[in-house]
Prior knowledge:
Strand order of the largest sheet: 3-2-1-4-5-6
Radius of gyration: 27 Å
Strand content: 15-25%
Order of helices and strands: HEEEHHEHEE
Distance between the termini: 101 Å
Amino acid sequence: MKLKHKREKKIPQLNTSALPDLVFTVLFFFMIVTHMRQNDVKVQVTVPEGEQLQQFQKKHATVTIYVGKSSDGKVSIQVDNTLTDEENLAKVLLDERNMMADVERDEFTVALKADRDVPIGVIAEIKTILQKINVLHVNYSATGQNVKEEVFTNR
């Protein structure tokens, strides 16, 4: 009589050959759907409320100016990621415009996000500087009742 040897039953190994494809697909998905913040806001900005607001569409040739109180309590101006003052604002904006392509320079727009407690004299001074360097497309940010943030276009 022959005895059969009992073989140990092994659990088959998990096939991981498709795992890198899956990881890169998920990574690609999150890279597409995630909104990357371009500017680190260094000043405190609480935009005022408005009633007649429109959504701003053309953001490709736009430079954002943030006006608000900095950590030391003084009114500060930030252009994209650069803190500046009123004296250097024109130079910073001209540098930003010169870095753009020729086609975008014609559509150069400034989005002004100012804190509601900033004195109107500071905003008027910024508008004067923008007029001197021939920046005529200015958008003002505000919040509405049903929207988080909209922009009033002054063209």
